[in-house]
Design a protein that fits this description.
alpha/beta; 2 domains; Isopropylmalate Dehydrogenase
Length: 337
């Protein structure tokens, strides 16, 4: 492939999907456009929807048609949002979900993913979607992470959330707690750790990543008195990781691994389940936390919040996490190896 602006570290072209049209995604895309950004930003959305939401915001962002990948590279200009138009199936009202627009939401994702696979886009940033309405439309959907993996034919996606230097990856993602223990195996942990090590090198440029591995149970099982997953699964998996050249240590109690003095000795934490690690990241920086999907052939980031239907259209949504997602995608694109 001939290098284009999408693959240039100096000016990555980033696809921004506007997400659920009834949520805060469209207005956050508009608010983001007011910022100085180190990329060429292409928003995938219904142009009329964005114009309507901009009028409601009372802002002055110019919603402009994107000329396509063949056009000259154009750095982002604050106050302008270049849009590749994708029409809604039905007019969207802020705060009111409509299953008729589910194909539109998925079409935005598919376009961004396919563009990233061909090198047209250096990264994909996704505004929030609503899992419930997608499932109500008859489309099985457990989350962006799983959908991206299926679309890119990635064997094992890994969810990682970052806020500043804090990085937390998950051994399991969207599962009920009753299913977590069964889902954690030596093989799955080793595969996840290998992906985490590879992508810390590939995206962040960390030559020798240090990984803290949490236990599953309180106090990391208390030598088997509070559960045997640490003895039977997690500790043997860590031994395999270390034998494979991965600097992994644990299993460590999750209630102490995030103490700043201890955390300073690691580049990432591998948590066993969703609510073991993510509350810490969100507390550390809810408006700056970014979700990164590892294990894919493309780079994808997203804000760490949902569609916020209760405030959609009000102009109250904070653009901080989406701005951080675009900033991080731009930085990681420069580290790609």
């Amino acid at each position: 492939m001939t290098p284009t602006s999408s693959t240039s570290p100096n000016l990555p072209r980033i696809a921004l999907t506007s997400g659920e049209p009834a949520g805060v995604g469209p207005e956050l895309c508009l608010a983001l456009a007011e910022h100085v950004l180190p990329c060429q930003l292409v928003c995938l959305a219904d142009r009329g929807l964005l114009e309507e939401r901009e009028r409601a915001r009372g802002g002055a962002v110019a919603v402009l048609p994107w000329e396509g990948a063949g056009a000259a590279a154009r750095p982002h200009s604050p106050g302008c949002l270049y849009v590749e138009h994708h029409p809604l199936a039905a007019r969207s009202v802020a705060g009111k979900l409509d299953t008729a627009n589910v194909p539109y939401v998925l079409a935005l994702l598919n376009r961004a993913i396919d563009g990233a696979l061909t090198g047209e886009f250096a990264a994909v940033v996704t505004a929030p979607v609503h899992k419930g309405v997608i499932n109500d439309a008859g489309v099985p959907f457990s989350g962006h992470t799983e959908y991206l993996a299926q679309r890119t034919q990635a064997a094992r996606p890994v969810m990682l959330l970052a806020s500043g230097s804090l990085r937390v990856a998950l051994a399991t993602t969207h599962l009920p707690l009753t299913a977590v223990s069964t889902a954690i195996t030596q093989d799955s942990l080793c595969e996840t750790a290998a992906i985490l090590q590879r992508d810390l090198r590939r995206w962040w440029g960390i030559a020798a990543p240090r990984i803290a591995v949490c236990g599953l149970n309180p106090h990391a099982g208390e030598s088997g008195y509070l559960g045997d997953e640490e003895l039977q699964t997690i500790a043997p998996a860590i031994a395999r990781m270390r034998a494979a050249g991965i600097d992994a240590r644990g299993p460590l109690p999750a209630d102490t691994v995030f103490v700043p003095q201890f955390l300073a000795g690691f580049d990432a934490v591998l948590a066993m389940y969703h609510d073991q690690g993510l509350p810490v990241v969100k507390y550390a920086g809810f408006n700056t936390a970014v979700n990164i999907t590892l294990g894919l052939p493309i780079l994808r980031t997203s804000p760490d919040h949902g569609t916020a239907l209760d405030i959609a259209g009000s102009g109250k949504a904070d653009v901080g996490s989406l701005a951080a997602a675009v900033q991080l995608a731009s930085q990681l694109a420069a580290h790609r190896r």
